[in-house]
């Protein structure tokens, strides 16, 4: 099939109903079959085994009679009712453990990334989101990232409302709760909200190296344009996009629809990948990369190696950890 006739992500205009956003708050396909038993702690990192045991114990408390009374209690009851927060670097198994907790806990329960919850508020409104989630036994929040004061206040208020309704909370991030926001904003109101969030969770540290990069430290060499087109033509369910066209299209599609943008796609092919210097475009690419990784969709690309997507100026900024996670995940998808 000629390259010009191949499907493009840039031609898709996905529409997503609000009820689909709620229904899709489950672990992504990449983590459908995980459990505590399938987590493999690194023997050289005792904190990984400790984190496994902590999450197993937390799972045993979820839904227990008397446990769903909120986080605003004292003494031993308050300690038992606190949320759990997994802190660690990239690829140490935080999402694996969070998804295992979700699978082990009684329902009703929801699982989503921080971005997916903020998108849900955008679709349902704050009151509608509280109503949709407050009946849950457990709310899991993956990749807890607070990138602006507005989102911080929004999520802090949402968690407070859910906690008052007795919902158990569990979250992961690459930054400790009390350190969220460092290097981004210094407003007193922002820091006050950060401290409030930190008080709602018991932190569990997970040390270790990125398992995706054990033996695969860098992205593979890029393909040629001709190789990318040939691969797309030979792969059922493939898409082929010029990288600048895809970036432009992402600016016109709400990030809550990026998952639907990939419906039915089995492999994404990109030609002419170049450094992304605009921060807004880079952050949109972060969200798309997360949805690709959630769905285990391989990426084949020409241009620069995928681990060179973000220039030093972006990597030195406040969104550094987001960008590094994206490079880690794209490297994994490029070698899949």
UniProtKB/TrEMBL annotation:
<keyword id="KW-0131">Cell cycle</keyword>
<dbReference type="Pfam" id="PF03969">
    <property type="entry name" value="AFG1_ATPase"/>
</dbReference>
<dbReference type="GO" id="GO:0051301">
    <property type="term" value="P:cell division"/>
</dbReference>
<dbReference type="GO" id="GO:0016887">
    <property type="term" value="F:ATP hydrolysis activity"/>
</dbReference>
<keyword id="KW-0132">Cell division</keyword>
<keyword id="KW-0547">Nucleotide-binding</keyword>
<protein>
    <submittedName>
        <fullName>Cell division protein ZapE</fullName>
    </submittedName>
</protein>
<dbReference type="GO" id="GO:0005524">
    <property type="term" value="F:ATP binding"/>
</dbReference>
<dbReference type="InterPro" id="IPR027417">
    <property type="entry name" value="P-loop_NTPase"/>
</dbReference>
<keyword id="KW-0067">ATP-binding</keyword>
<dbReference type="GO" id="GO:0005737">
    <property type="term" value="C:cytoplasm"/>
</dbReference>
<dbReference type="InterPro" id="IPR005654">
    <property type="entry name" value="ATPase_AFG1-like"/>
</dbReference>
């Amino acid at each position: 099939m000629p390259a010009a006739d191949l499907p493009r992500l840039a031609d898709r205009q996905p529409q997503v109903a609000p009820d689909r956003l709620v229904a899709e708050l489950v672990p992504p396909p990449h983590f459908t079959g995980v459990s505590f038993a399938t987590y493999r702690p690194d023997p050289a990192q005792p904190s990984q085994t400790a984190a496994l045991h902590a999450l197993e114990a937390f799972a045993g408390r979820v839904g227990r009679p008397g446990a769903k009374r909120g986080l605003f209690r004292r003494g031993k009851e308050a300690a038992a009712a606190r949320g759990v927060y997994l802190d660690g670097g990239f690829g140490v198994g935080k999402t694996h453990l969070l998804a295992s907790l979700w699978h082990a806990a009684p329902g009703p329960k929801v699982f989503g990334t921080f971005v997916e919850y903020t998108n849900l508020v955008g679709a349902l409104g704050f009151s509608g989101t509280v109503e949709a989630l407050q009946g849950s036994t457990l709310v899991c929040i993956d990749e807890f990232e607070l990138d602006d004061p507005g989102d911080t206040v929004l999520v802090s208020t949402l968690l407070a409302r859910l906690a008052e309704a007795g919902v158990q909370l569990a979250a992961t991030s690459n930054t400790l709760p009390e350190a969220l926001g460092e290097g981004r904003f210094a407003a007193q109101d922002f820091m006050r909200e950060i401290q409030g969030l930190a008080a709602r969770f018991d932190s569990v540290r997970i040390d270790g190296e990125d398992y995706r990069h054990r033996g695969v430290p860098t992205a593979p060499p890029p393909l040629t344009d001709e190789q990318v087109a040939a691969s797309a033509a030979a792969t059922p369910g493939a898409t082929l996009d010029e990288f600048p066209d895809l970036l432009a299209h992402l600016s016109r599609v709400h990030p809550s629809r990026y998952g639907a943008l990939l419906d039915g796609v089995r492999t994404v092919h990109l030609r002419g990948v170049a450094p992304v210097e605009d921060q807004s475009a880079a952050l949109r690419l972060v969200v798309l990369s997360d949805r690709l990784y959630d769905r285990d969709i391989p990426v084949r690309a020409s241009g620069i190696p995928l681990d060179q997507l973000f220039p030093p100026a972006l990597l030195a900024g406040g969104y550094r950890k987001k960008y590094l996670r994206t490079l880690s995940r794209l490297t994994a998808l490029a070698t899949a």
